[in-house]
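INTERNAL AUDIT FORM
Audit reference: QA-55
Scope: verify that the stored structure record matches its stored sequence.
Auditor: D.O.
Record contents follow.
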Amino acid sequence: MDFRRIVLIRHAESTANRDRVLTGRIDPELTRRGRRQARRAARYIDKRVGNVDLIFSSPMQRSLTTAQAIADRLHLTVAQDDLLLETNFGSWEGLKRDELASTAQWEHYTHDPFHFTFPGGESPQEARVRVQLFLHQLLGRDDWAAAVVVTHYTPLAFFVLHVLGINDGTRAPFAIDNASITVLRISGKSGYLELLNCTP
């Protein structure tokens, strides 16, 4: 049976990840460690995945820098796509988790993070809609057998949940670490999880 692969990458460590700051639309740079992580991910994809036809990235700098390290290794051009943006965390952007834990809304968020609307921002369900639209557009193309997608935690979680057929969960029952690689195998209308959260 013919299949195609979508290679999902969470962006490498940013200064916000290092400092445990919540960032959706804030645009921090990668740390020095993050740049090393991006290069290791690029080597892994080059050696283990083989030929890649397309590479897409969220337009945020932390994703673009990660994607560019991979594109340079594979001699590809990165296509930016707003559908791959992280959830907009609104007034929670730039705050640390321990700061947020003292707010009245934190308990609501931790109880059901995928259906919580961030004050002045979005619900992760809006990221889910973007992921579904991106997948629809990508799978409608016939010019690729393997595509790399570099994005953020929430969109990546919804890519995996979509393939697993989990459409109404409150949270992702798996980890997605910085610079980790997750591979979806797509055949027709069926999807399979081939690799999850592999950090080279």
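Auditor finding: record pair retrieved intact. Helices lie at 15-18, 32-49, 61-74, 97-100, 106-111, 124-139, 153-164.
Action required: none
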